[in-house]
């Protein structure tokens, strides 16, 4: 008898916010690294044509022959697009600018919104034994982001601790609701994480207060501080957890991973 008390396969989380520069990619890379550090196995899917997650995890452009584009549009099997990174237990499907034409190329494809869903449910997924799949979304609510939301169990929303941060969240929530009603009724909100938080800045505190008042328990207790080590790490093609393991940024992402894992243990209990 299979064990029905636990959902099989990895937990798939879309990291999304249609605003650019709010910390999606940084959160994807560093949350992945923190989960791996605690002994879990993680796949990152780079779904942004900018390919920042791929660069940040050390996959050179010249080394991206097969990418998310091939996975979605070329029907290339998952096993052929996965790359290992320098970190044991952490793999990535890299992206290049090719992916930016996906919207147009897929217009006539009836399953265009389900391509990532289908790709991540190929039978060879079972062989990899990942605990988490983190999808780094582009800064838009386009077909790629919808693919991520249909493929995922949940959406994790980074919220930059800046003026206008909450603007746009209601639009994002509406998109999540649409996806639930049409294609993925199980889609949950994993949580909202405050990024680039500066405790000396009143504005950061105000954004935190507004977020907690409006979004309640959805907001993670962990806040990611603005930390120069976090912004330096990608130019060394490393997560901050490797680049400067004792930095405040690294510690915050470890704490976010602990909170995330705890939430899931509670869900599974
Ligand atoms: P997005 O993927 O949402 O566009 P990024 O993760 O690329 O956003 O972050 C935007 C910029 O902010 C990047 O230059 C990144 O290095 C920087 N950044 C992100 N998080 C932090 C942080 N906690 N402290 C300092 N800089 C950060
Ligand atoms: Mg990004």
From TrEMBL:
Function of the protein: Involved in chromosome partition. Localize to both poles of the predivisional cell following completion of DNA replication.
Record-linked InterPro entries: AAA_dom (IPR025669), DNA_Partitioning_ATPase (IPR050678), P-loop_NTPase (IPR027417)
Protein's name in the database: Chromosome partitioning protein ParA
Pfam families: AAA_31 (PF13614)
Superkingdom, taxonomy of origin: Bacteria
CDD domains: ParAB_family
Ranges for domain AAA: 11-189
SUPFAM superfamilies per UniProt: P-loop containing nucleoside triphosphate hydrolases
Source organism of the structure: Parasedimentitalea psychrophila
């Amino acid at each position: 008898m299979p064990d029905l008390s636990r959902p099989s396969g990895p937990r798939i989380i879309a990291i999304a916010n249609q605003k650019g520069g709010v910390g999606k990619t940084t959160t994807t890379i560093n949350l992945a690294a923190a989960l791996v550090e605690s002994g879990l196995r993680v796949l990152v899917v780079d779904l942004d044509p900018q390919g920042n997650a791929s660069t940040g995890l050390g996959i050179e452009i010249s080394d991206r022959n097969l990418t998310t584009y091939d996975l979605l549009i070329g029907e290339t099997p998952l096993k052929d697009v996965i790359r290992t990174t320098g970190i044991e237990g952490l793999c990535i499907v890299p992206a290049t600018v090719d992916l930016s034409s996906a919207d147009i190329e897929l217009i006539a494809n009836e399953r265009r919104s389900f391509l990532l869903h289908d790709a991540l449910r190929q039978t060879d997924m079972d062989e990899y034994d990942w605990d988490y799949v983190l999808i780094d979304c582009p800064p838009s609510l386009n077909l790629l982001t919808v693919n991520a939301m249909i493929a995922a169990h949940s959406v994790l929303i980074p919220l930059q601790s800046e003026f206008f941060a909450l603007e746009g969240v209601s639009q994002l929530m509406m998109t999540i609701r649409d996806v639930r009603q049409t294609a993925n009724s199980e889609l949950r909100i994993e949580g909202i994480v405050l990024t680039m938080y500066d405790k000396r800045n009143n504005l950061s505190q105000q954004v935190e207060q507004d977020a907690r008042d409006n979004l309640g328990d959805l907001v993670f207790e962990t806040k990611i501080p603005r930390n120069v080590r976090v912004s330096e790490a990608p130019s060394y093609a490393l997560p901050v957890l490797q680049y400067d393991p004792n930095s405040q940024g690294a510690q915050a992402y470890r704490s976010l991973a602990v909170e995330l894992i705890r939430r899931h243990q509670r869900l599974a209990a």
